[in-house]
Write a structure and sequence with these properties.
heterodimer, A: 243 residues, alpha+beta, Ubiquitin-like (UB roll), Alpha-Beta Plaits, 2 domains, five-stranded mixed beta sheet, 21% helix, B: 604 residues, alpha/beta, Arc Repressor Mutant, subunit A, Glutaredoxin, 5 domains, 14 strands, globular, disordered N terminus
Chain lengths: 243, 604
């Protein structure tokens, strides 16, 4: 890293936890940081999709003010703090909130080891739910021949909504309800996935960061212990997210 | 039962006729759903599917919009839908007992439809009638004020007899302005057209300069400079510009916009027209909260008269090229739509989720076009400034908070109602004027504002000191400030849009903690968790609702901690089981009986 102060303030560079990060025109902090190989925790963002700004995991301090790194435009000379005890503590609380809000039983979940929520929880050193669990009554929709929709695991990141709309051109998913009762719904007369236009080859079928949308009959094709986040922690797999 | 004994309804418009009325415009979805429900009572899924198809939307999208708003029902509800206003001031006036009384009389559980489909009874967020509560809203249309046990008995009988609400005693629907102290905005009004004429004589740039000179700041709470907002909107490129009036007065304890809409609508519409002249808009929209549905017809009558007077429409006051008209959209029960980008989403027929900002509405607002969104009171101020000049306005109030502010005073005082003061007025002065006695606390600006205790009554209303959106709720020493905070916590959880994690889950966690404390099962650890949640939500939420949701907690824990501690069985954690008894097995196994082996000796 250069010690030249003029370089650090030149157009196209901001400071992330003391490291210089170059950015291109129109890029957000999270896009630029990810491209440069820096990990900022996130759940609802994925390279190539519009920012949603709902999970708030990527909340950073920009010149002392908080903002979601996925929505804040990068600008020259910004001082961005991300990997601090305060912000990581906040992220742990947000992950704990998502755990208690839904029904997440990692030991029996076939997404275990591939799950971004679980991996981020490990990264944030979460060792328990902290809050009382809500144990909501949520349905499992097994009507689709090739896909399972298990809303117990849904974290409302909206990636499937965006993937279906922006990539698949289908609009299979939408959000219904409000407050703690907000939930994902399927576009079909019956409301069941099996009656929708969803196909196993859709982008939306493979984008879920948790185990809410899963392909059937592939559950343990890769054994536990050999899965993506079993091999390397999420913070060391930034390149997989890179634009 | 006779058909004639059913509550009467609007002439039944089929969903097709509504689609024709709104030109198959998907942006009118919320209005279409509202009118369909007014006719049909609820929104059956089959009809949502037909509307979706006709508007080129998915059923899931339409279902999601219907499911977002508290006033839309996608399951059958009673033909009489009774919603008790659930603000703390309603509760203080006995609303909860009145709700129970009505439920008992009609043999129905709160939140459930009676088996015969006759009636549903539930609560709703503040209906903006705090100075004449307890209040209720019937069929999302009519309000009943000044409820008493006798009136509840009467209402129950009328519902059982099937008397339509329109035939209930007219006196029950009386909503009074209760203007207790008037300054410029509640005083003598300019003649219709006077403000527009002054603006036309000056020209748009000079009018804008004068607004800037007045240093007028938005009256909705945030206090953004109106002149700057209009300048940004005027300068922003776009196919068309829009002027939007935020009449979604949802902050509990606030009702000043209701009075302005009732008795000062000319001044409001004139301010919007001046705004249109400045920013170059041809279309104006009023976003009227669903709770004020009863004001729709009177407001439309004022609009029609102004069209006839040449104050709206084509070539206003004869000025060629100055064309502007105003339409009214009705909300459907969603506090978050008071946030300007959520309001625009709702105007566009979507779920009222706040947008990612920037871009701000002045550049990218309604239909992606430059849009200025201003509060009712702000537009009224503009009309007065146009007539009297910016310098006149700037001479009132304080250097950073010019002009006057209208306060909605309610709670423990002799004379609730509207009080208008110049900015800089002492809190204590307002308390004296409204006849408040033995005051313990004042909630200024509503639940998202600030709670002040006695030692702070010398502070002043101003953006420099105590900013406010207009609510002023008074609590005397008989009130439990913990219960006040609990009511506010329930409000925020009920009104969270559900979009971002900290607000969606955080507001629910707060309510659960507060309920636990209320039942006497709380521990000091729960108070600590409330602290943590407050800190998180202040910095991590998507919009201001979540950020403000813990304000009442923060203030009341800091200033009225004994009110919380009264609800704790112990200031230290008391587990549900006897830890020392559990240790007795270990003592036996290890043969220890020294002081270190007994829990009581280890504490502290």
């Amino acid at each position: 890293m250069s010690n030249d102060r003029i370089d650090a303030l030149s157009p196209g560079v901001f400071s992330l936890d003391g490291k210089e990060v170059e950015f291109g025109p129109g890029e957000t902090l999270l896009q630029a940081a990810t491209r440069a190989g820096h990990y900022i925790p996130h759940l609802c963002w994925k390279s190539g999709f519009h920012a949603n700004g709902s999970c708030r995991l990527c909340t950073v301090k920009v010149n002392g003010r908080t903002g979601a790194a996925c929505t804040v435009q990068a600008a020259a000379g910004q001082t961005v703090e991300s990997n601090t005890d305060e912000l990581n503590g906040q992220r742990k609380t947000l992950v704990q909130m998502l755990f208690v809000e839904g029904n997440h039983f990692c030991p029996s979940c076939e997404k275990s080891g591939d799950c971004l929520l679980q991996a981020t929880a490990y990264e944030m050193r979460m060792d328990g739910p902290h809050f009382e669990e809500f144990y909501p009554d949520r349905p499992v929709d097994a009507s689709h021949p090739d896909l399972l929709l298990d809303l117990n695991r849904c974290i409302l990141c909206g990636l499937c909504v965006r993937a279906s709309a922006e990539v698949d051109g289908k609009n299979v998913f939408a959000f219904d309800g409000h407050g703690i009762h907000t939930h994902l719904v399927v576009d079909s007369a019956s409301g069941l996935l099996g009656d929708s236009t969803m196909a196993a080859s859709d982008c939306a079928a493979h984008i879920c960061p948790v185990g809410a949308i899963l392909p059937k009959r592939q559950g343990f094709a890769v054994p536990i212990g050999q899965r993506r986040f079993d091999i390397k922690p999420v913070s060391q797999q930034v390149e997989e997210d890179a634009p | 039962m006779q058909a004639s004994s059913l509550p009467s309804r609007l002439p039944l418009p089929s969903w097709q006729s509504l689609l024709i009325k709104y030109g198959n415009d998907p942006h009118a979805l919320v209005q279409i759903l509202r009118e369909l429900q007014a006719a049909e009572g609820w929104l059956p899924r089959e009809q949502l599917a037909q509307i979706a198809e006709a508007l080129g939307l998915t059923l899931a999208h339409v279902q999601g919009v219907a499911g977002f708003y508290r006033f839309f029902h996608t399951q059958p509800v009673g033909r009489y839908r009774v919603l008790f206003s659930d603000n703390i001031t309603d509760r203080m006036a006995g609303s909860q007992a009145l709700l129970q009384q009505l439920c008992r009389l009609l043999h129905v559980e709160p939140g459930r439809m009676r088996a015969d489909g006759r009636v549903s009874i539930a609560t709703t967020s503040c209906t903006g009638l705090c100075d004449q509560g307890p209040a209720l809203l019937i069929n999302h249309h009519q309000v009943v004020t000044r409820l008493t046990p006798a009136r509840i008995n009467h209402i129950a009988a009328l519902i059982e007899q099937g008397v339509p609400p329109e035939q209930w005693p007219a006196d029950w629907f009386r909503v009074e302005d209760q203007i207790r102290l008037a300054d410029v905005k509640l005083g003598a009004q300019p003649a219709p057209g006077q403000g527009i004429a002054a603006a036309l004589a000056r020209g748009p740039q000079a009018t804008l300069d004068d607004i800037k000179h007045s240093k007028l700041r938005g009256r909705g709470g945030a206090g953004y400079a109106t002149g700057t907002k209009w300048q940004l909107c005027r300068n922003a490129p776009g196919q068309s510009h829009y002027v939007v009036c935020n009449a979604d007065e949802g902050e509990p304890g606030t009702f000043k916009d209701r009075v302005l809409l009732t008795s000062y609508a000319d001044t409001l519409f004139e301010g919007m027209t001046i705004g249109a002249f400045v920013v170059g808009a041809q279309r104006g929209l009023v976003y009227l909260r669903g709770e004020y549905r009863y004001l729709l017809e009177p407001l439309q009558a004022v609009l029609q008269r102004r069209r006839e007077q040449g104050l709206l429409g084509v070539a206003i006051q004869g000025r060629a090229g100055f064309d502007f008209d105003i339409e009214i959209h009705i909300g459907a029960g969603a506090y978050v739509c008071g946030e300007e980008s959520a309001l625009i989403e709702s105007l566009e027929g979507k779920r009222g989720t706040p947008r990612i900002r920037p871009p701000f509405p002045v550049e990218h607002g309604y239909l992606g076009q430059p849009t200025t969104v201003n509060n009712v009171e702000t537009f009224c101020a503009v009309t007065h400034i146009a007539v009297h000049g910016g310098a006149w306005w700037a001479a009132i109030g304080t250097p950073q908070s010019t002009g006057t502010k209208i306060h909605s005073v309610s709670g423990d005082c002799e004379r609730p109602g509207l009080y208008e003061y110049p900015f800089g007025t002492r809190i204590g002065r307002i308390l004296e004027d409204c006849g408040a006695r033995n005051t313990q606390a004042v909630q200024v600006g509503g639940p998202s504002g600030v709670c002040l205790s006695v030692s702070e009554f010398n502070r002043r209303i101003a953006f420099e000191d105590v900013p406010t959106a207009g609510a002023f709720m008074v609590f005397d020493r008989s009130r439990d400030m913990f219960e006040v905070a609990r009511n506010f916590a329930q409000f925020f959880a009920h009104e969270s849009c559900g979009f971002c994690t900290p607000c969606r889950v955080g507001t629910e966690l707060v309510v659960r903690r507060m309920d636990k404390l209320a039942k006497g099962y709380g521990s000091s650890d729960d108070v600590q968790v409330l602290y943590e949640l407050d800190k998180l939500m202040h910095g991590a939420t998507h919009c201001g609702l979540g950020a403000a949701a813990c304000n009442p907690l923060r203030d009341t824990i800091a200033k009225f901690r004994p009110a919380y501690e009264r609800h704790l069985t112990s200031l230290h954690f008391v587990p549900g089981f006897d830890m020392d008894a559990e240790l007795s097995q270990a003592r036996l196994a290890t043969g220890r009986d020294d002081t270190g082996a007994h829990l009581a000796n280890l504490e502290n």
